[in-house]
Task: structure prediction
Amino acid sequence: GQQVMQIPQYQHVQEGEDFTTYCNSSTTLSNIQWYKQRPGGHPVFLIQLVKSGEVKKQKRLTFQFGEAKKNSSLHITATQTTDVGTYFCAGMFSGGYNKLIFGAGTRLAVHP
Amino acid sequence: SAVISQKPSRDICQRGTSLTIQCQVDSQVTMMFWYRQQPGQSLTLIATANQGSEATYESGFVIDKFPISRPNLTFSTLTVSNMSPEDSSIYLCSVGPGLNTEAFFGQGTRLTVV
Result:
């Protein structure tokens, strides 16, 4: 079936260190979206990547979509305590009627 | 954007009973999605609900256990039937995404079955 794998499951960093989470699909994605979920909250949209090799930046966050549209990454530069939460990638597959398949998520803890 | 009102926000239920979760959207949407998120886990899609047709269920989820209604373009309900402690989870409704738009989520319903 359609699956999106995401690693690592957990990441603990010191404030100011960088953080990266990776997603991979065995089949080509139509697009990939990234969401952040704070403890006790619901997922909130961060970005969508559609084009092969696409790179998008939001301040300290950099999102990449692989050339084959099978993998993606989120990199946070110089983490802050406000970055704490779980980051999910969610893939959309062709013919998937716009449903999103979520990765397992990476829980980020930032120690001051 | 879309604003989704989901209720109840939480409930504690006895095993063997049923709970109906409601989601109201502030605009008309074609598709609504229902997810389950077990503590510390990812979101698992339960079903896709289109107005005017039966919901489409994902593998592992069946209509008898999770009946869904979609009476109009702004409202949907998910019922968790004959509950057991294994059904304890957070249930989320969602609208979108479109081809180039994001998904919006309700605040979630935290269900505990005792």
Summary: Chain B touches chain A at residues 31, 33, 35, 40-45, 48, 56, 59, 92, 96-108 (CB under 8 Å). Chain B has no helices and eleven strands. The radius of gyration of chain B is 13 Å.
